[in-house]
Amino acid sequence: MSASTRSRARLARRRAPRVAAATSLIGLAWFALAGTASSVDPSASASPSSATAAGPSPEVTAAPSPAPTDALGSPAPTAGSASATPAWTPDFSPSASESLNPLFIPTMPPATPLPATAPPLPTPIPHPTSGDKNGCYDCHSAVNDKQAGIARDWKSSAHASVGVTCADCHGGDPTSDQITVAMDPKRGFVGTPTRLKTVGLCGSCHADPARMKPYNLETDQYEKYWTSVHGQQLLVNNDVRVAICVDCHGVHDIKKTTDPTAKVFPLNVPALCSSCHSDAARMQPYGIPTNQYQIYSRSVHGVALLQDKDTRAPSCASCHGSHDAQPPTSATVVEVCGKCHTATQKLYEESRHSQLPAATPQCWTCHGWHDVTQPSSERFFHQQAPNYTCVTCHDLQSHKLRLEVARFGDDADRRCDTCHHPDSDIYAQAEGINKAVTGAEAAYRLADDEIQQAARLGMITSDAEVVLAGAKTSLIQAQAAVHTTKLATISQLATDAIAKAREAQARAEAKIEQSNFRREAMTVVLALIGVCVVFLVLLKRQLDREAERG
To answer: Full-prediction pTM beyond 0.85?
Structure first.
């Protein structure tokens, strides 16, 4: 450390008590102002805590009148309100840089509490049946091109293959050829159901274990959907713009999830979600960014799924859920990485990071969300240390540690020194971890290069490759152990990897030397053979001349 740096450090230490005192005074003043504001806030008196403190009042103790609901238990829109308009206005005014930030999370209002249970499950629509006759299909196939297309879609669907007909969803009498009879409401005809009722319609069959057992299908989708962010918006705010069953699975052309042409086939899920979430006009009312698909497609997950066609790679539904889709701030989503990376999750749980109650670094803190990239030693430090202030890591009022999502939006800022100052002990520990891992990586690369060189010379390198494979195992273990943040554990594994790599390198170098010796010996032998050939040629000529004279 230079003299100027040490001087600045001493100056900072002398100023620290005064800064802390000033910060404390600011905090006390803030709390005083906050307390004054809350005492005159009309909304404060309506909170449960203030009501309890002041004693019960008629307004508090009186049971609220039940809100009007529709047939499925959803709150009915009041007079003068639009059923398709959310009951809140999102605060979404990101800057240009935030709009491209994969971790940008807009300010959203608190969600309206959900009912204790999902809406009652409707019963399947009753209708007359008569063998295989389906008058709906016969008539609609001949009406016009649009209706004929709908009929063809149903005919090739998964529903048609198991005998689910038009009347199962639309009601009516499929045995009649008369339109006034077939589409008579008295015979159960319901026509096109509303988006809200469509969810119940699908659930009336798909939530029935007896009906789904022959097809080995799960029956909890209906309950899950109402816990999702989509279901909450539809049920609580009567927002019919959110995704429902038919938006993902199709209307008449429903296909099995194992069908590669289905929208819900794993390789097609990102494009399916993108069809709504990349639509700026559709997402604008909710303040949701629309660049997730673009970012995901370039990530290590997106490349594996979309380019390499590896269905083991996670899609949107793998992390957010499908029927029970959750927003990115949900604890379920934040902790979802451990579903696949189980060994890494266990190592992380051993770390000090996992034990911080209010500022726990999660997987996304270092690796990102939609833009996950291959990990490397470059993720340890910035090339130039960032600027630090007290509020970089601490809450101004409570002085407690905090972790701000926005600070890790840019991949270039997902580094150890984003939080840890270069003068701290933890930074020094991170430096030690970095040196251990990078040293093992360098030793492995050097040994691998030597083995490749020996192989190009025609030497058998199987024994060296076996030793190098052991070094690779130790290196991977050391890299994974970074999640424990334990320098001793990582150093031990890195040292083991270096020792094995050096042994493999020594074996390869010995083979290279052996090859060089063989080449040199071959050169000498060839030279001797050449001398012998010349001597024999000269001897033969001499013998030939003597024979001619004799």
So the answer is: no
